[in-house]
Automatic annotation (TrEMBL):
It comes from Streptomyces beihaiensis. Signal peptide: none annotated. The lineage of its organism: Bacteria, Bacillati, Actinomycetota, Actinomycetes, Kitasatosporales. GO terms for molecular function: peptidase activity. GO terms for biological process: proteolysis. Keywords: Hydrolase, Protease, Viral release from host cell. InterPro entries: Peptidase_S78_dom. Residues 117-263 form the Prohead serine protease domain. This is HK97 family phage prohead protease.
Amino acid sequence: MADQGNITTPHAADLNAAALRYATAQGWAMADGSYPIRPANMHGRQDLESAIRAVGRGGASHDAIRVHIIKRAQAIGLSDLIPDNWAADGSLTGQNSLEGTVEIERRYTSGDTGKAELRADNGQKRIGGYAAVFNRQSKNLGGFIEVVDPIAFNQSRGDGWPEVIARYNHDDNQLLGTTAAGTLRMGIDAYGLSYDVVPPASMSHVVELVERGDVRKSSFAFRTLDDDWTMTDQGYPLRRLVGAQVVDVAPVNTPAYADTSAGLRSLAKKFDADLTEVRSLAEADELRRFFVRSDGPSPARPKKKGMPAHAAAAALLARREDPYV
């Protein structure tokens, strides 16, 4: 009988070398042993969710990775978990595929957290900074706080940051650069989501404002692909962004209003609650009622799709050998 290794462990990140070999031999993983997705009765749902979020970390063709994931999802009867913008051949239906269906949200950083700064390279002036910082709790966004998970932008990165633009104050008339033209570069490190843009000569006034320190904040716009709702240690509602499609980044002097309507809709969906009720509780700063029962001390739990995303990310980061790469 083939050595299955630790094949009954609950998460793909826990699979040892023998288990990965077995998964590959069974056709559950790609030929190189990456992206193992076991049967549904062997924690396949958790494997599938982790694989979908990890596409951007793979070194192979991302289209090929998506094809493998789609086939495994079909085989274990979980095709409904495949993102809507994944085509059968592994390609994406385009950056604009979510327009009109998922609204744009904006967040910003300030001060030394992710400030916009002027950079120089061979006489070429550039503007850069961190548009988002990982694992840092936001201010109160209207009844809940938010954290950006380190895996949140993996899909955008894996897709090559398609059609991401940089605009001063998110203004269409203040275009600074684009990933399509190569004038905007995006990156992810342990700290957060970084950007580096070469502004055109016509935007020299923005360069001057950043250079003088008048503009110190950075911002990013995004569409949420996946989030996870829990509570902080202090018992306050916490939204963790675990999947986000980057739309634009920007140095800003006037931060965009943090419209929380998308977040509140997400919470309403998690609990099958009426959106009007959710908004009313948010205004009263009482969203915690969805997490704690009023008739007893037992906490109510939001609907989860297997392992919480932040726990999966922690398990992946804790491994020296990443099964998804």
